[in-house]
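Structure tokens please, single chain.
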Amino acid sequence: MTTDGDTPHSIYAIEKWGMDLASVLPNGDLGLKNPLKENSPIVSLPKMVRDLEERGVHTPLVLRVSCFLQQGIQNINQGFAEAIARAGYKAPYRGVFPIKVNQQAQVVDRIVEFGRPYSFGLEAGSKPELVIALAHRLAKDALIVCNGVKDAEFIRLAILSRKLGFNTVIVLESPKELDTVLSVVDEIGEEPLLGVRVKLTNRISGNWAESSGDRSTFGMNTDQIVAVIDKLKDKGMLHCLKLQHSHLGSQIPDVNDVRRAVGEACRYFVELVGEGAPLTHLDLGGGLGVDYTGEKTASENSINYGVKEYCTNVVETVAYAMDEAGLEHPVLVTESGRATVATSSMLIFNVLEATLYDASSAPKPEEGDNHLVADLAAIDSYVVPERLQECINDANFYRNELRALFRRGYIGLRQMARAERIFLHLMGRIKLLAPPTGEMPEIDAHLEQLADIYHCNFSLFQSLPDVWAIDQLHPVVPLQKLNEAPDRRAVLSDITCDSDGKINRFILEDGISPSLPVHSLTEDEPYLLGVFFVGAYQETLGDLHNLFGDTNVATVELRDDGGFDLLHEQEGDTIAEVMSYVEYDPRDCVDAFRSIVDQAISEARLNTSERKMLMAAYRDSINGYTYYE
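Here you go.
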């Protein structure tokens, strides 16, 4: 296999997408670097996994790196602070983290901790998320922004929380929601802190285009906004309206879309102030993207800007609009969840076995074999670089003819097995002689159909749902042998009983590939793979397909001596826990199985020692990890 670049690992484009967080050690291990400390040592990921295994934390596991999360918080806050200083902007930035992006307690707790110096707050899109937000001691000036559909109970809790010092803003999503707010205000006699969600007409590109534009689900159009303003005036409560929320979009690929959407949001802000609304905060929602591929282009899995450019565009656009209108600069708010947490987590799993689509040797045709078997074997004599396409054409023809004969009953199982083995041997020789990818597209296309299948210990639907649902790309890299040229290509299959449970799009140096360069598996030597940038949404959206539950989770901090500290360990779901999620009582299952076993004893199909062994096996399973152990 031919690889481009100066080193074997350059094929994986780690330098492009790695954001200086990952690097390859001289021994070929992939390592992690602490971005908060200059010249920090690189910590070997395979060594870390071995250490965690010794502590009882087994793969598959989600590895959260605390300093990566802290860097995410710092980047957005410092980016705005620097842009505000450069532009002479006269109000601060007060970001909030949308809990929906990663609701795990260890993540939210650390976001609150790392965000406290910046008065970084939380966004709650549901009652449960508001309950989570109110369980944290936020900084004095931090916001809790309440979005989504709200009932009276949600609104009541939000209003009353202000008596505890929380800056809880109820963002009105519709005129009807205002009616509910007014009803609760009459009931409890406390005034709310209100925002209004304005639906922008500007539409972004990318996977989440539907979250923007005037067909987006949440927010109000101009007619509805005017109705809300008039009702607040009638009730003498317009002074409660302090925040305008205008969601720019999600994972915005093109920075010019940011400028256009912010400009439109400013127009509404100016008009609302002109209507008498004493707005002090402009919430621009989400949108700050993550460059998953490292391509730095305006595409579905990349962005053509960085955090600093994003912050500069927002600040300068708002400053210009407010200065032109003669208004005071509003406090800037964004809900940048993806950019905050995506890089902080990675999924690590082991390869269990491989289905190979070539063979190192081939059997000889036997007496009595159909002549097509000998014709297929004869191709071996002219497998040379200049005739590879001819070899592929001939091999496919003879194999297809033989398969047709097998289906009709003219040749037997063993003869067909010999033919398949000869074909795979020919493909192995062709792979070795094939030119570099891109030089002969027709050969490339055929060989991609012969990529191996590496069967891996994870569930795509539980741990990487966006890969399945919207073809989201995440960097995938072997964690070891990166100083050795990969000698095979593979797609990755999970352990669910589903043909969709696979990864077959990979980020490589020369673009997106349908297969991943990998190394041959060695007996009794673990082969680990890592999927990076999974901190946003993947843990939250995962489902229980085939009843595979949450994986083990380890939160670590990288040390200055090249080691790591295990800050927190969360055991993955047991089978009993997963069963309870789908309405089974594990104790009832044990009782039912015991009844079946005892009936077998009564019918003399089992003896007592077999009963003991069966019950122990059932209990071990029901209390065990849902993944391969």
